[in-house]
Amino acid sequence: GTAARTIANAYGPALMYLQKDGDGTATIERSTSVPTFAQSGYSSKHSMLIKCTGTDASVATGAYKECSFRMTGTDFNFLKGKEVTVSFWAKTAAANSGDVYCYQVNKTGTAWAYLHEFTATSSWQKFTHTFTMDSVATADDETGYVYFGFGLGSTGSTYQGTNNTWNSGWKVGTSGMNNFFDSTSNELYISQHMVTIGSSAPTFTSSPISTVKDQVDYYVQRWDLTTVANEYAQAGWAYTTSLLNVMWNYRREMRAAPSMTGSAAGTFALYYLATYTECGAGIGSSNIGKNAARLYLIHSSGIMTAGQGAGIGRHDSDTCFIMYDARH
Q1: Which long-range contacts does 74-81 make (Cβ < 8 Å, 24+ apart)?
Q2: Is residue 179 a contact partner of residue 153, using CB atoms and an 8 Å limit?
Q3: Under the phi-then-psi rule, with left for phi > 0, alpha for psi from -120 to 50, and beta for the rest, what region is 170?
Q4: Are the beta carbons of 181 and 47 closer than 8 angstroms?
Q5: DSSP per residue over 18-31, as a string?
Q6: How many CB atoms lie within 10 A of CB 283?
Q7: Which of 43, 52, 300, 310 could bridge 281 with an S-S bond, Cβ 3.0-4.6 Å?
Q8: Helix (H, G, I), strand (E, B), or coil: what is residue 76?
Q9: Count H helices, E strands: the chain?
């Protein structure tokens, strides 16, 4: 969706994950504030906006806050031991203009982290930094992943490291950072985040939208039934008088067997014979694989004949979605 989400140890947009320990809350949303074409050479439609919505004025030793892109270990092996340049555009609200934040690279399950401080203001500014990736402690399969992202302050001494170097242990900030969570007026905007092999950052570019959608589908696939009222989704068959089975085929093979979530059962409709009725009783999934799953719909009363065809769709104009999630 496009609405602001209160995030804590969960994904926001696509593969950007906000995790925290300690007080303070934040939302992530899509903003139309972006660097201009004259500034960046690229016409972005949106940026990522993080807002502080609850403060952490007294930061505990073991507290931390960070928002990062998660790359699988197999993808990261392409960058192992190479000189890279990270680049991104950033700005803040007026209230936290001039605050220091931290770009961070971390690997789960291993003891290293690279940190780089940057100072953002209330005007869009491009930041670049060149360094050499570690060549030893990396993930060699898809069970591991690497963070590329942003330390948000409110980080206790346990998770603080040294600027512009590789650090031992998992670190997300430095002692020189400001606390993003000291005021609910604080905002941080990020746009055109890119990691490039070599000593310089080219003008930002993006793959065709069809490629991006396919790449995202490897990790998470969502179907929003929002086009028309009573939108039809997919055909199935009556397993019992009240249980509809649907073979739900994904758009492409996923990274791993995903978990399924969806809107409330009452937002779905059962299409049977010449009528459709609100589901009411339940919706779920089983027999989940990397290419397809069994989706089932439980009707509140037994109106079907076992073995006959039926279908699943949107009930009236309810907010209705199904999502299969194979992110880490």
Answers
A1: 74/139, 74/140, 74/141, 74/142, 76/107, 76/138, 76/139, 76/145, 76/146, 77/138, 77/139, 77/140, 79/133, 79/195, 79/197, 80/133, 80/134, 80/135, 80/138, 81/132, 81/133, 81/134, 81/135
A2: yes
A3: beta
A4: no
A5: EEEESS-EEEEEEE
A6: 22
A7: 300
A8: helix
A9: 3, 23
State which amino acid sits at residue 8. A
| DSSP reduced 3-state for 158 | helix
Q: How far apart are CA 221 and CA 312, in angstroms?
A: 18
DSSP state, 57?
-
> How many alpha carbons fall within 13 Å on the CB side of residue 118?
26
C-alpha dist (Å) from residue 62 to 52, 120, 146, 179: 19, 25, 21, 15
Q: Looking at the predicted structure, is the pLDDT value of residue 296 above 80?
A: yes
Q: Quick one: pLDDT at residue 101?
A: 95
**Between 8 and 136, residue with greater pLDDT:** 8
Longest dimension (CA), the chain: 68
pTM: 0.83
